[in-house]
Amino acid sequence: MTFDYNRDIIVVSELKGAIDMMIKRESYLSQIRPFIDKSELVKVIVGVRRSGKSIMLELIKEELREKNVPEARMICINLEDMNYSSLTNAEALHGYLKSKIDEMDGRAYVFLDEIQEVKDWEKCVNSLRVNSDADIYITGSNAKMLSGEYATLLSGRYVEFTVYPFSFSEYCEARRADGENKGVGEYFTEYVKYGGLPFLATTQLDERAKTQYLKDIYASVVIKDIVKRNKLRDVDLLERIIAYVAANIGRTFSSNSIAAYFKNEKRTVSVDTIINYLNCCEKAFLIHKISRMNLEGKEILQINEKYYLADHGLRQATYGNNQRDIELILENIVCLELLRLGYKVTIGKNGTREIDFVCDRDGKRIYVQVCYYLSSEKTEEREFGAYADIKDNYPKYVVSMDEFDMSRNGIIHMNIRDFLLNFQKLSKN
To answer: What is the distance between the alpha carbons of residues 314 and 239, in angstroms, rounded to a whole number?
Structure first.
């Protein structure tokens, strides 16, 4: 694939600006709301490009409007906007914001979108936090943007929220808000194919336009958030590694196995290079690495992790065949849902058996197995039998496309659509 960087960014920006309808993402707002007006803490919102971070800022602003905060006390800057191209370092941004804040009567509310575009931005934000009456909200597309040299300035002085593309529940809500009234099954078919990026759920586009949008987003992530930011030299190698991950989501593999794959392709690539490129993809939120845990010894295993994509729609646009590889896609969807709900997710190794997801949150645990259909006794034995040696009383789930409840021996079977739509409520019980 060849990219026209400028074209891709322009296309994405235009599409982003076309979103004129928002759904209230209450699952995130409920986390952020307690910190509104806690000016001693910077609110940091991170996630993959076009996952809805900018929309979250708009939703927070709407919360403020409901509290009668005047628009004049809100300073909003998208640091990818050419109108702010002079604010590329901490000093310039600080000078601009300080002059605006000093003119205000009362607390300022500062919203900085894609803050990683500013060199040493932490120095600016920390200075405003300390010396100004300002409640600060920032977004970024880099998972490690608070781990750099200057990040210690904000250590213990920020709260971070990860925003993911739409869950299936949010996707259905957005489609219905747009005036559609399809059945859940039809929405799920769309969701499997095109994923949950908010723009696609809130805009009527034909298949070709959807695919083009996803390709443009992918290009933007690869070029801007991975290649450019990490100064990677070999774009072709990066794309091949991403393609390998896309083809093998939900399957255990290691950097060594990727190196072996390239060797078979008559290309020598060091394991260290592969690890570095994968880390860069993680930093851009393009992929999520899920480690394996030995359930007997409770230790985290250092080899043969699994990787999942930030949005499976990007796989459809760049690799294709989401519906053909539906079992992999279902596993990706469930993994992202569990991460979205705040679980620490690992793969469970239990002797010779493996449990897809071991999920821990607030001192509680659940186990989840994912399959396409429980179409045979062998499949049933594999999915339900994965729990055979698990003796604790934590909830154990098997989710599939089957419509009939096949629960047994205390193991809960759920249709995957019902699981995605209702599990948040169930998990609170």
So the answer is: 13
